[in-house]
């Protein structure tokens, strides 16, 4: 059975259609302005398709509506299923023009070795069969293709020092992971900074998060808790994550000093 659209999605579509009609704009003309097909806009207006938040913002602007006229309704939509939400995360990661990453617990997925990924997944998903783990490993490794492009997006990473000191996978895997971090940091598009343990309390002890910036769309943030990941698109929420990231930058060591500590930890293994 096909799941019916949510009442909020139907309401959003009706408001878009009402505002378009009130502005005297034909569906075909609005679709052309937005750069989408008439079928796409028709599905949005009938509640059959959930547009992205940046697309709803574009509709607001194209119709000359006050800010938040449509996005306030959009923000009341039910959350995606976790699997679909992570698929959206992967899509946005591939599209990003710049990635800001803060990690409090583990090496970020884009910089993990295959062995580190496998060790983390096996520890975090003890009930999963080996083939399921291997599928997840392959999926995470595939995400790293974004860094192998001819012109990869700049990746700025801030790590709590505990990340590089935790021996995930044992000494051999740990040492190889630190070598990999050092190798990746040699790339011009990648910056790695550490927040030293001596800092004590800092702004990043609450959660890990990522911020994606785009060429022609608003920035978004992504955070995780033990149950699921969460995509944040509301500008005021993204601003909180950006402010937190900037606060973390003031606590982090410069890249040269950070890489020196990573080398020291590697040599101690």
Protein model, in words:
- This protein has 269 residues and is of the alpha/beta class.
- The protein has a six-stranded mixed β-sheet, sandwiched between helices.
- The model has no long low-confidence stretch (mean pLDDT 91).
- A hairpin with a 4-residue loop joins β5 (220-224) and β6.
- The protein starts with 6 loop residues before the first helix and ends with a helix.
- The longest helix has 17 residues, at 235-251.
- It is built from twelve helices and six strands.
| Class per helix and strand makeup | alpha/beta
How many domains in all? Answer: 2
CATH homologous superfamily caption of the largest domain: Endonuclease Chain A
Distance separating the two termini:
56 Å
Question: Which word captures the global form?
Answer: elongated
What strand line-up does the widest sheet have? 3-2-1-4-5-6
Proportion of residues in helical segments: 40-55%
Sheet bearing the most strands, described?
Answer: 6 strands, mixed
Number of separate strands:
6
- Residues in β-strands, percent: 5-15%
Please tally the helical runs, counting DSSP H or I stretches of 4 or more residues.
Answer: 12
Task: Give the topology.
Blueprint: H1 7-22, H2 27-34, H3 38-45, H4 53-62, H5 71-74, H6 82-95, E1 98-103, H7 114-124, H8 130-143, E2 155-160, H9 161-165, H10 171-185, E3 190-195, E4 209-213, E5 220-224, E6 229-232, H11 235-251, H12 255-268
Helix pairs in contact: 2-3, 7-8, 10-12
């Amino acid at each position: 059975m096909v799941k019916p659209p949510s009442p909020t999605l139907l309401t959003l579509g009706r408001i878009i259609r009402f505002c378009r009609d009130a502005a005297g704009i034909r569906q075909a003309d609005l679709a052309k302005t937005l750069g989408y097909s008439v079928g796409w806009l028709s599905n949005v207006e009938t509640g059959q398709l959930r547009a992205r938040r940046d697309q709803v913002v574009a509709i607001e602007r194209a119709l000359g509506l006050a800010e938040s006229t449509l996005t306030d309704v959009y923000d009341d939509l039910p959350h995606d299923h976790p699997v679909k939400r992570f698929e959206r995360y992967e899509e946005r990661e591939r599209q990003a023009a710049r990635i800001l990453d803060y990690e409090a617990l583990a090496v970020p997925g884009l910089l993990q070795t295959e062995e580190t990924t496998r060790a983390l997944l096996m520890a975090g998903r003890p009930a999963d069969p080996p083939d399921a783990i291997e599928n997840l490993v392959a999926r995470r490794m595939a995400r790293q293709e974004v860094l192998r492009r001819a012109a990869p997006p700049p990746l700025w990473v801030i790590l709590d020092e505990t990340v590089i000191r935790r021996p995930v996978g044992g000494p051999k895997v740990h040492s190889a992971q630190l070598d990999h971090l050092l190798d990746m940091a040699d790339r011009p598009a990648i910056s790695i900074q550490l927040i030293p343990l001596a800092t004590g309390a800092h702004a990043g002890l609450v959660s890990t998060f990522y911020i994606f910036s785009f060429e022609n769309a608003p920035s978004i943030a992504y955070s995780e808790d033990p149950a699921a990941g969460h995509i944040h698109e509301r500008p005021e929420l993204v601003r909180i994550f950006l402010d937190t990231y900037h606060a973390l930058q003031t606590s982090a060591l410069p890249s040269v000093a950070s890489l020196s500590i990573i080398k020291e930890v590697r040599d101690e293994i």
